[in-house]
Design a protein that fits this description.
132 residues, alpha+beta, Nuclear Transport Factor 2, Chain: A, 6-stranded mixed beta sheet, 3 helices, globular, disordered C terminus
């Protein structure tokens, strides 16, 4: 599997974990020492904490929801380090409207393969027709 295919697979792992309601499966692509910033700007440190916080979400506000993630771009900073931009859509059950987020992440090839070492998630500003 190429580096690009392995990086794409990290996002598929997140999708599977989210859609299965499993914090540990969602967090599996993250390094043990990963930094994760939520859409609300809350910082989380480490795979275990990422798993715990997402597990709590899957038991409450996001129970029964599904995640569809798409890697938009991969830019290699070094052969073993990549900047990844990804878009994700969370679809809650019951016909509630979906929420789309954008993440900027850093993936690193380590001894066990590619892992996400930093992840910053945000809700993009809806275009209003006003240029900045």
């Amino acid at each position: 599997m190429t580096d690009e295919e392995q990086i794409h697979a990290l996002w598929r792992q997140m999708e599977d974990g989210w859609s299965g309601g499993s914090g540990p499966r969602f967090a599996a692509p993250f390094a043990e020492d990963a930094d994760f910033v939520t859409v609300r700007g809350e910082a989380t440190r480490g795979r275990g904490e990422i798993a715990d916080r997402h597990g709590a979400l899957f038991d409450t506000a996001y129970a029964g929801s599904a995640l569809a993630a798409r890697v938009e771009s991969i830019r290699y900073l070094r052969p073993d380090l990549a900047l990844v931009h990804a878009t994700s859509t969370v679809t809650p059950p019951g016909g509630r409207p979906p929420m789309t987020t954008h993440a900027q992440a850093v993936a690193e090839r380590r001894a066990g393969g590619w892992q996400i070492v930093a992840f910053h998630n945000m809700v993009p500003l809806t275009p209003t027709g006003v240029s900045a």
